[in-house]
Design brief:
Distance between the termini: 11 Å
CATH architecture: Alpha-Beta Barrel
CATH topology: TIM Barrel
Number of helices: 8
CATH class: Alpha Beta
Order of helices and strands: HHEHHEHEHEHHEE
Largest sheet: 6 strands, mixed
Helix content: 25-40%
Number of domains: 1
Radius of gyration: 17 Å
Shape: globular
Strand content: 5-15%
Strand order of the largest sheet: 1-2-3-4-5-6
Structural class: alpha/beta
Length: 245
C-alpha cells in the first residue's frame, strides 16, 4: 500500500462489501480496494450509516473479502474506532491480523453519521489526535497504514479541517518517535491525512508540501497539493498535480 501511494499517481480503489463484489472487482485488476462502513451497513443489514455497525460485523465482512484479493491491499473504513481509545487499539490489532493494508479513522462523535449526511458532529481536536495516536501505536506491521479522515469542512470549515490534518500528522510523528514500535515508519507520511470536500466523491490526501504551519522540517512533512484551489463541483476535475484515493 505504501508503494502505491508513493507512485505519485491517482489510486483508484473500488468499493466492495462482500466476497462476490470483491471477486467481481478483482477481475478488473485494480491495484487496491475499499470497504466502507456504509457498504457493510447497507449491504449486510439494510440500514443507513449512522453508527449501527460494530467492529465485529466489519471484521466478518473483511473475512469474506480478503481471500478474494490475493496480494492486493484492502483499505477499511473503521468509522470512529467504535468507542474509546481501548476500542480503537483492539480494532486496529484485529483488522491487522486479518491482513488489512490501511485503516481509516474519522473524527466524528459517537454515534457517527455518514459523511454524505447533514448533521454531523466532530469530537474536540485533542480527542481526535488521541484516536489517531492510539491507532498508530497499536500497529505491529510497518506496512500497515493509518488514514486519518476529518469531517471538519462540513462542521467548522476548511481552515479547521487543515488544522486537524496537520495535528494528526504531527501526532503520528510524535507517537512513532516516542514508542519506536514500527521500525522504518517514523515519518509523518505513514499517515495518509485526508480532507474531504462535501460535493466531491473522492478523497484528497495531504501530499508533500514544503512545510505545515506546525511542522517546519520538510523531512517530516507530508504535502498538501493545491487543496485550496480544488474544484467545489462534482462536475469539475482536480488538477493533474493532485492525488486521490
Amino acid at each position: 500500500m505504501r508503494e502505491l501511494l508513493e507512485r505519485g499517481r491517482v489510486l483508484v480503489a473500488p468499493g466492495i462489501y462482500d466476497g462476490l463484489s470483491a471477486r467481481i472487482a478483482a477481475s478488473f485488476g485494480f491495484d487496491a480496494y475499499y470497504l466502507s462502513g456504509f457498504s457493510v451497513a447497507g449491504a449486510a443489514f439494510g440500514v443507513p450509516d449512522i453508527g449501527l455497525v460494530t467492529a465485529t460485523e466489519v471484521e466478518a465482512a473483511i473475512g469474506q473479502i480478503i481471500d478474494q484479493l490475493p496480494g492486493k491491499p484492502l483499505i477499511v473504513d473503521a468509522d470512529n474506532g467504535y468507542g474509546a481509545p481501548a476500542n480503537v487499539e483492539r480494532t486496529v490489532r484485529r483488522f491487522e491480523r486479518l491482513g488489512v493494508a490501511c485503516i481509516q479513522l474519522e473524527d466524528q462523535v459517537s454515534p457517527k453519521r455518514c459523511g454524505h449526511m447533514d448533521g454531523k458532529e466532530i469530537v474536540p481536536i485533542e480527542e481526535a489526535e488521541q484516536r489517531i495516536r492510539t491507532a498508530n501505536e497499536a500497529r505491529t506491521a510497518k506496512d500497515m497504514l493509518i488514514m486519518a479522515r476529518t469531517d471538519a469542512i462540513a462542521t467548522d470549515g476548511l481552515d479547521e479541517a487543515l488544522r486537524r490534518a496537520e495535528r494528526f500528522a504531527l501526532a503520528v510523528r510524535i507517537s512513532c518517535l516516542s514508542r519506536r514500535r514500527v521500525p522504518g515508519a517514523i515519518y509523518a507520511r505513514s499517515l495518509n491525512c485526508s480532507a474531504r470536500y462535501r460535493s466531491l466523491s473522492t478523497w484528497f490526501p495531504m501530499a508533500r508540501r514544503q512545510c505545515f504551519r506546525s511542522m517546519r522540517s520538510t523531512r517530516w512533512a507530508t504535502q498538501l497539493r493545491c487543496i485550496r484551489s480544488m474544484p467545489y463541483s462534482a462536475s469539475q476535475r482536480p488538477c493533474n498535480r493532485c492525488t486521490a484515493i
